[in-house]
Amino acid sequence: MTNTSEAPPTTDEVVGEYAHQRRPPGRHGWAIFGIALAFAIFQLYNAALSPLSSLVLRSMHVAFLLLLAFAVYPARKHAPRDRVPWNNWLLGAVAFALGFYHWVFEADIILRSGEPNTADLIVGSVAVILVFEAARRVMGWGLPLICGVFLLYGMFGQYLPGDLAHRGYGFDQIINQLYLGTEGIYGTAILVSATYIFLFIIFGSLLEQAGMIQLFNDVSLGLVGHHRGGPGKVSVISSAMLGTINGSGVANVVMGGQFTIGLMKRFGYKPEFAGAVEATSSMGGQIMPPVMGAVAFIMAETIDVPYLEVAKAAAIPAALYFISVFWMVHLEAGRLGLYGLSREECPSVRAALRGQWPLMIPLIVLIYLLLTGYTPMFAGLLGLAVTAFLLLGRPLAERFGILPLRIIFWVGLGVAAAGLFQFGIIPVIALIVALVLANLIARGGRSTLHTMMWGLIEGALGSVSVGVACAIVGVIVAVLTLTGLASSLATGIVDLAGGSLFLGLVLTMFASLILGMGVPTIPNYIITSSVAAPALLQMGVPLLVSHLFVFYFGIMADLTPPVALAAFAAAAIAKAPAMRIAMTCVRVALAGFIIPYLMVYDPALALQSTNWLAILYISTKALIAIGLWGAAAVGYVNAPLNWPQRILAAAAAGSLVAALPVTDEVGFALAVAFLFWQWRSARAKPA
Fold first, then answer.
1. Closest Cα to residue 255, out of 271, 278, 287, 232?
2. pTM for this entry
3. According to a count of CB atoms within 10 Å of the terminal CB, is the N or C end of the chain lower?
């Protein structure tokens, strides 16, 4: 659980975790580390004690994000990375200073709400420009260009023809919407980033530092590594588990793929298939409760439903997605005649859990609190506190050589922590400070303090891409809110569909795939839910289901050509062409494409029903449809399928999805015919 070396990681080891960040040595690197650590402490302090108003907290959160973005991300691809140029520090300092504007003038801004003065316009304009530049550095041109188009529409949309034109808005109205209120860059997305998301990023970072990824890999290998196609199944299970603590599908690919892609290639999978399995599984982590790439919290805030309802609605579709990928891996392994590792090569699940079982405690506590109705803020704080108790307490417990004494220490620490939580957060902070001081003098304690510190630093650095994306996507929300464009686009989709729900779903799917291309998870959801989801709502789809539908396909955009960010991330590890991996991703995820349609046609799949028989029926039907789609796509079940058999499987699956009169009966009949054909073929085949 702790690092064995007393020496702290080098700048390269920490900053180098993130692909195109700078790796400055010496004082520049330590300055970045100091800023990141200060950012983490500031956020945790505010999460625990809430001394600042909501708007001021959002403003200071963006200030830290921009300072780190200009310090860590170079302006150009080939800019020097061994130092931070003075003009980058200047931009970061200006951005950070502007963060105090809302703090100092908060009362005045509220009093003159809707009537910005000259200073407001100047400061707001500079802040918006800096957000765009920071987003360009962090994420490339894609998202800033999309947001720029929306900004231009807000400024000049009155000159467009037809229904797209709006009544026209002054520059002061646009800056007021973008900067001074909570509808623009300081909107809901930044609020969630400054509260829930940052906590969960730090939580995941500390668990990664403690060895959680290795535990996930060991458990996955022990469970399925020795089965048919074992290495591919390991990728699916480990990515699903990693997705519970990580908020980025592409990061999941990079972290998990280093282990799983090489293992799959070693056991006979083609490089493009190995990369596709890892990419498809990793992106599935973004739809897996409880965190869902942090979108669960934003979705709950956006549509004003309890977080627990979002997590419950996403549970069965997420499970079906991973079952479909697991099934595709199993069929591909059978088609290629690939087997798993020997049992001797697979670690023991029992031994892995016996050695690292304490790592599961914070995750269990977090999930329990979220599922029992506690707020995500409280659950995140308690999860972090438990992680801190775990990391800081282990070296102290190890000083007791006798097991009973160690057990007494752990039980005593747990009882003390539980008791202190009854009196608020201050006693808990005091206990953590006491454990920190004890580790300064305990054997092995300083190594643990290093682990804690670098976990905070990596978490702060990892939050930059998410936070900057949340800030700039506020431009889209501001323009949509100001102009009413979302309702116009929704009406256009409904008109094109001509009253057909199926055609409306297809159009919304393509809109979500296009809008989600190259966009990180959180802005991906905000864009698709703002632009595409209203169309489904107009066609009578329940609110929560419509948001899950567009989010699901927005995530799939990272697997589909031509952008396919997850495929590009996997390509570097698999050493295969990215486009070939992307095309294979579509085939591997093919069965998963039907799940959102089933969810719309029967919302019981998203637990929008109290009839458990209806939930069981639609879940069973979905499993059968997934199995048939997989067989049709791969061309194998227990033996290779000929084309008539594949067509029959596809027809059966399509009938089960169609949700028209008697199509279920037809689908089940065709499924039985397919299975009977398979059984006859297997009997006729010589042993």
1. 278
2. 0.82
3. C
